[in-house]
From TrEMBL:
One family name in Pfam for this protein: Ribosomal_L17
Keyword Cytoplasm: no
GO BP annotations listed: translation
Gene Ontology CC: one annotated term: cytosolic large ribosomal subunit
Gene: rplQ
NCBIfam families according to UniProt: L17
Family the UniProt entry places it in: Belongs to the bacterial ribosomal protein bL17 family.
Protein name, entry field: Large ribosomal subunit protein bL17
Keywords noted in UniProt: Ribonucleoprotein, Ribosomal protein
Subunit note: Part of the 50S ribosomal subunit. Contacts protein L32.
Domain of life of the source: Bacteria
Gene3D superfamilies, per the entry: Ribosomal protein L17
Gene Ontology terms, MF aspect: structural constituent of ribosome
Length: 111
C-alpha cells in the first residue's frame, strides 16, 4: 500500500473522498499513484454492491460514509456490471501536471 505522504487517518479520509467523487461523477482526474490505490478499492466496492444484501450495503456505507452515494452504487452502478467478472475501472494517462510534474491520469468506471 502506498502511503502517499500521509498518516493512516488522513490517507483513509483521502480514499473516502476520492471514492465518493468517482462514484458520483464516474470519471475523475487525479495523480497516477492515487488512481492505482483507488482503483482496487473501487473494484472491491462494486463487487460488494453486486451482492446486494444488507451486510454488503452496511460495509459500503461504513467505508463511504455517504448514503446517497452508496444508494447510487447499489441501484445504478452495480447492476450494470452484473455480467462482468471484474475490471470495472480504467486508468488513462494524461501526462505531467504543470505545477510539480506529477503524472496525471483519468480514472473512470468502464461502461
Amino acid at each position: 500500500m502506498r502511503k502517499l505522504g500521509r498518516n493512516s487517518s488522513a490517507r483513509r479520509a483521502l480514499f473516502r473522498s476520492v471514492l465518493t467523487a468517482l462514484f458520483t461523477q464516474e470519471r475523475i482526474e487525479t495523480t497516477e499513484a492515487k488512481a492505482k490505490e483507488i482503483s482496487g478499492l473501487a473494484e472491491k466496492m462494486i463487487t460488494l454492491a453486486k451482492r446486494n444484501d444488507l451486510h454488503a450495503r452496511r460495509q459500503v456505507i461504513a467505508d463511504l460514509q455517504d448514503e446517497a452515494v452508496a444508494r447510487k452504487l447499489f441501484d445504478e452502478i452495480a447492476p450494470g456490471y452484473s455480467e462482468r467478472q471484474g475490471g470495472y475501472t480504467r486508468i488513462l494517462k494524461l501526462g505531467p501536471r504543470r505545477g510539480d510534474a506529477a503524472p496525471m491520469v483519468i480514472l473512470e468506471l468502464v461502461k
